Amino acid sequence: MLCIATRKCNNFNIQMASQIFKSFKGYERYYRIGIKLNMINVIISDIYNKCSVLEKHIWGRERRMEDAERENVRLRGEVEHLENELLAEKEKYKQISDELDQTFAELAGM
């Protein structure tokens, strides 16, 4: 009798172990899916962090670009002012040169 009971117990244990193994396979699959989802969440978090860093870089570069554009406009205005000043000085130089030529001509004619 003990032998039969032991066989039944062994069969029951084998069946139980088989069911546990099958259910463990299912849980193992869910566990792997959970691990993959966790990895995906980490990757997405990294992507969000990189995006925020890139947005800060873009914001800083846009600000520098706007500053450079304002500086460019200011410098163009300054260049235009200096060109006008140079033309005025050239006109003065031409007038002085013409007056000197006229004065030398008068002195030579005397």
From TrEMBL:
<feature type="coiled-coil region">
    <location>
        <begin position="65"/>
        <end position="99"/>
    </location>
</feature>
<protein>
    <submittedName>
        <fullName>TPM-like protein</fullName>
    </submittedName>
</protein>
<keyword id="KW-0175">Coiled coil</keyword>
